[in-house]
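Today's session is about reading a structure prediction critically. Students often jump straight to the picture, but the first step is always the sequence itself: look for stretches that repeat, for charged clusters, for runs of hydrophobic residues. Only then move on to the predicted structure, which in these notes is written as discrete structure tokens rather than atom positions. Here is the chain we will use throughout the hour.
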Amino acid sequence: MNRSHAAEPSMKIGLWVWPSDQKAQRRILKKVSASEHLMAATQALAKSKEGLSNAEIDDVLTDNSNWMTRWVVEQLVALGFIEYKVDFFGGPGRYKMTELGANALSAITGKPVQLQQQTPVPQAAKPATPPSAPAPTVPAKPAAPQPAAPK
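Below is the predicted structure for this chain, in token form.
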């Protein structure tokens, strides 16, 4: 069977991987900076303290296209610029900027990018020491015998 290379499905369409080669990294950064959608999402994620949900990224892109939102998220996650955080208590999952994403955005814009850190939720205070003596226990009354049920 003779197959044409053009007919093969290719994972080379799209950005997909962050290369280790400096020249290839610059090419990827050029592609990201040339995309209005990727830049809008990346900049919004860099400013967000708690990350953005799918719906919030869709709002940032302002094109009302779930397919474009999906494409943007796939590209940025595949490159390692953002990561997905699940909310285990029923809230929407959120995408957050990674250190690599902040460095890439800084290289594109020429401005330092400071990642917004979510403020930690204070933990409930635990007792400093356990009680020194156990609480006295009251012996339970013996139960009165129950009469047998009639047959």
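Discussion point for the tutorial: Helices lie at 22-34, 36-47, 54-61, 66-79, 99-109.
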